[in-house]
Amino acid sequence: MQKYLAFLRAINVGGTSIIKMDELRKHFESFGLENVQTYIQTGNVIFETREKNTSKLEKKIESQLEKVLGYKVLIFLRTIQEVVSIANESPFEPKENETVHISFLGEKPGAAAGKKLLTYNSDADEFIVKGREVYNLRHDRDASIFSNQFIEKVLGIPATTRNLTTIKKISEKYK
Predict the structure, then answer these.
(1) Banded pLDDT at 42 (limits 50, 70, 90)
(2) Per DSSP, which regions of 65-158 are E strands?
(3) Which pTM does this prediction carry?
(4) How far apart are CA 78 and CA 74, in angstroms?
(5) Residue 93 in contact with residue 155, Cβ under 8 Å?
(6) Which of 40, 67, 87, 133 is deepest in the core (most CB within 10 A)?
(7) Fold matches, 2-82 and 84-174
(8) All residues at 6 or more sequence positions from 167 whose CB lies less than 8 Å from its CB, including other chains
(9) Mind listing the pLDDT tens digit for each residue in 149-172?
(10) Distance CA 40, CA 160 (A)
(11) Which CATH architecture has domain 84-174?
């Protein structure tokens, strides 16, 4: 069995796409996934399955969620091993009043898109692209240009974002 984390995009954020985590867990169980758990209200689902093809599994879950919810929900799957690595290999160590965010991408961005994102590094924000993730160190919250929509616009790729603190807690709890 392989343990996965499904990071759902735009769930319970800003009053849209509201779904209770118990309901979400039951949906995932109805899809034949095992040992399903959720972590906080922002659409983080931990589960196990025998399926090894992440891309195929991602598309299958998205399709099944759309059928039961009546609207499309993008998910970004990572194995628990990938999540542990993402948490432990952050290129940034935030100081007081700084935060690190990780944007999970649907695919690895092209070199040109990655370079374009780096042109936005400033006194307020630093960005690093590592594979299918973007790390953002936000030095100054008020001056920051960072948002999930910003990442999607610059890279031209769907994304969902979590705080590094959340990713570390998930990786410690479910590894």
Answers:
(1) confident
(2) 75-79, 99-105, 125-130, 133-138
(3) 0.93
(4) 13
(5) no
(6) 133
(7) yes
(8) 83, 86, 87, 102
(9) 999 999 999 999 999 999 999 999
(10) 15
(11) 2-Layer Sandwich (3.30)
